[in-house]
Design goal:
100 residues; alpha+beta; two-stranded antiparallel ribbon
């Protein structure tokens, strides 16, 4: 499935979603319960499990989060590959061209 850059920017536009990605960067492979607990204790965010789940759905739709089920648990992992086109487009410096 091809991700659109606009979906990535939309997902990153929300500060809670960026914080979720920060937490997954810090400790990858968390359950919804773990993410909610870390948001509440480390960041003072009292978002409901449903709200965090909706944020995770947006991040997953943009390809920034991948999930894996183990029994009744669903683990969330950060995926930075959707950021690569952005980096290539605006952050990678073009090679210096020699004058003809």
């Amino acid at each position: 499935m091809v991700r659109r850059v606009g979906d990535v920017f939309k997902a990153l536009a929300d500060s809670t979603r960026r914080t979720i990605l920060d937490e997954l960067t810090d400790r990858d492979g968390q359950t919804l319960f773990e993410i909610c607990a870390r948001l509440a204790t480390k960041h003072g965010l009292g978002s409901s499990r449903q709200a965090v789940s909706q944020h995770l759905d947006v991040l997953e739709a943009a390809g920034l989060v991948e999930t894996r089920r183990e029994g009744r648990y669903k683990f969330h992992y950060i995926n930075t590959s959707p950021l690569e086109p952005i980096i290539e487009r605006w952050l990678t410096k073009p090679e210096k061209r020699e004058p003809a």
